[in-house]
Amino acid sequence: MRVLYSSHTYLVGENQKKLESIVKQSDIELDVVVPHLWKEPVLGTIYPHIDKDASYNIFPTRILFPGNEMRFMYLSLDLYMQNFQPDVIVVENGVGALSYTQFLLCKRKFAPQAKIVFFTWWNIPYRARQPFRAIESFNITGTDGAIVGNVEAKNIVRSQGYVGPLTILPQLGVDTDLFAGGDGKDIKRHLGLHKFVIGYAGRLVPEKGLRVLMDALDIFQGQFDLL
After folding, report:
1. Contact status, residue 35 vs residue 64, Cβ threshold 8 Å
2. Is the pLDDT of residue 178 over 80?
3. Alpha-carbon distance 66 to 74, whole Å?
4. Within 13 Å and on the Cβ side, how many CA atoms surround 136?
5. Cα separation, 80 vs 16, whole angstroms
6. Left, alpha or beta for 117 (phi > 0: left; psi -120 to 50: alpha)?
7. Got the DSSP string for 27-79?
8. How many other C-beta atoms lie within 10 A of the C-beta of residue 183?
């Protein structure tokens, strides 16, 4: 089976582990389309990680409006479908994304036999304005399936009129070799941590709720180490 994947998520090397897992666990030939760069408000400009030993093909492709998930567009006439002839196309950029519209149009012309699926995390109710409402409606009508990251996203997609097959499945899993439970005594000793440990791992930005954590620690009863 030939599968064509696309998302700016897979510019990042860590996230590409999912792609490698798909190939290794299935009889799949995988091609991946990613933007030539992406702009993040905190991380800045991100460029594609290229693993020369990967079991799949990755194609960095120039885009317009990098950083705008719903409005960015690929500068490609066939999105690699003409030669690859995918059986399945998975686009992880939301039901209203212009990039999904591009994949739908290219599928019609170059790979009409393929099934096409979108993915969305979006879990906040909204009503798109025109012309984006029309684009969203076109995308919903043309899709063969949907993958959503949570129940709220499922409810929103259904409320938008999508009645086809739908699966709730988070976009990325967890590397259980890297994130595994174990006895942390040696690590605590090495770091000089001798009390109850409260830890945080992530970006130091307000939306992560760090101020809420600090407020909670003000009323915490007992001694602790903050890591």
Report:
1. no
2. no
3. 10
4. 20
5. 19
6. beta
7. T-EEEEEEES-EEETTTEEE-----TT-SSEEEEE-EESTT-TTT-EE--SST
8. 7
Partner residues linked to 3 by β-bridges: 30, 88
Q: Give the other-Cβ count within 10 Å of 55's Cβ.
A: 14
* Cross-strand bridge partners of residue 64: 73
- What pLDDT score was predicted for residue 74? 96
Judge whether residue 227 has pLDDT over 80.
Answer: no
Q: Tell me, what's the pLDDT at 207?
A: 79
Q: Which two tokens stand for residue 44?
A: 């800045």
The Cα 19–Cα 22 span in angstroms is 5
In terms of DSSP H, where are the helices of 2-65? 17-25
SS3 call for 30 = strand
What is the location of CATH 3.40.50.11930 in the chain? 2-168
Residue 209 CB neighbours (<10 A): 13
d(CA 101, CA 180): 40
Distance CA 179, CA 171 (A): 17
Task: Provide the residue type at 163 as one letter.
Answer: V
SS3 145: strand
C-alpha–C-alpha distance, residues 136 and 161, integer Å: 10
d(CA 102, CA 79): 8
Domain 2-168: top CATH class: alpha beta
Q: Which amino acid is at 146?
A: A
What's the predicted TM-score (pTM) here? 0.80
- Angstrom distance (rounded) from CA 75 to CA 61: 7
